[in-house]
Amino acid sequence: MFSSQILLFSLLLWSSIAESLAIPRSNDPRKYIVQLSSSTNLLSHIRNNSFLTHAGTAGIGKENLQGTDGTIERVYSIGNFTAYLGSFNADIAKELSASADVKQLFPDDMFRVGIEDINLEYGQAVKQSGIYEQQAPASWGLASISSKDLFWDDATYKAPLPLGRGVKVYVVDTGVYTEHPEFEDNRAVKGANFVSDESDEDLNGHGTFVSGIIAGALSGIAKDAKIIAVKAFNSRGFSSYSSILAAFEWIYNNHNSADRALINYSAGGRDPYGIMDPIIEELFSVGLNFVRAAGNEGVDACSYIGYNELAITAGSFDINGNRDDFSNYGECVDIWAPGKQIISANSRYKDGDSYFTTKSGSSFSCAHVSGVAAVFLVHGVFPQGLKSSVLGFGIRNQLGRMDTSDTNLRLYNNLDGFSG
């Protein structure tokens, strides 16, 4: 009797778990990303798979390709990278994944921007010939990146003029509160929104904070750069592969290869399908450098986001020059930048909250790197050599609590080299 009760309880428990995990039955459609092999033509692929052909193959657009057994909802084309979002049952998904046309098929999963939160207040600036000086900058990070010494003599941010003038920084994030005074003189604009059920406003604060570090009037590094807000994460900090792909496709299509520009991607999320590598390659091919966060799981970044030779991957250190415990680490992290208790623009300022707020995370280390990179782009550094310049000007062997696999390299803005 007792064993029967245990069995019944186990069955009920498994049923509850299965339901909570939404395990798909063969007749239950689920959203998938289908990445085609580089040699595959989309129209040929649709013709070769009869369940995708019922909408007809002539004049196929980028949305609403209807099929009897599945629906292609959106097509993504970024250079030689082609993928689509579709709703398919398990049988169709299995057939598609076995197709020679398909490189991989995976669920359109959700993932989250990783941050740690806190709260505070600051600033004041003057321009001298060839050098910008800001006494008591909003955040310690600004003083850090303009000092060759780990422990700087005074809390001053110094940088070579101009501070990123003419450079566009695409911030793929939760949006940006562009009316914040930190973005005076139209230095931040709304580009596109790929969160279907939200406005283009920053309802989370992460994107506004990141953008403040990059180009804010008091909290920013490249104060003359232009922020282009590309909203792909919702008010809770979540996004999906479909939203991210749409964001990068929009950037690719709207970027002028003659422009000096880069992408700040402070998400730092796991990429188990390796979907980012070919996209980063296509973006780089048109002159778009890609700066990303190492992540905040405190694990080896190689096992989390992996290594990409074209991207610049940033880990976090604190005001005492020690690697932050939350930061991912290892040889897949290219450079280390300030990331703990950083002060920047508060998106809730519009609601009467404080002008600044304080946050921690490798997202903000990433933003420091993007700010320095934007300044480099107006000082004779070409897009193809931006990563090597950022790493080449870094200061070696000053940081503590480093793993033996870490590259001990601290971000530096090459003040002496550009202003001398």
Automatic annotation (TrEMBL):
A Pfam entry, by short name: Inhibitor_I9
Keyword field contains Hydrolase: yes
Molecular-function GO terms, alphabetical: serine-type endopeptidase activity
Residue ranges of every copy of the Inhibitor I9 domain listed in the record: 31-110
Keywords: Hydrolase, Protease, Serine protease, Signal
Signal peptide: 1-18
InterPro entries the UniProt entry points to: PCSK9_ProteinaseK-like, Peptidase_S8/S53_dom, Peptidase_S8/S53_dom_sf, Peptidase_S8_Asp-AS, Peptidase_S8_His-AS, Peptidase_S8_subtilisin-like, Peptidase_S8_subtilisin-rel, S8pro/Inhibitor_I9
Stretches assigned to the Peptidase S8/S53 domain: 164-376
Organism superkingdom: Eukaryota
A biological process term (GO) from this entry: proteolysis
Active site positions: D173 (charge relay system), H206 (charge relay system), S363 (charge relay system)
UniProt similarity note: Belongs to the peptidase S8 family.
Matching PANTHER family: CEREVISIN-RELATED, PEPTIDASE S8
Protein known as: Peptidase S8/S53 domain-containing protein
Species of the source: Tortispora caseinolytica NRRL Y-17796
Organism placement in taxonomy: Eukaryota, Fungi, Dikarya, Ascomycota, Saccharomycotina
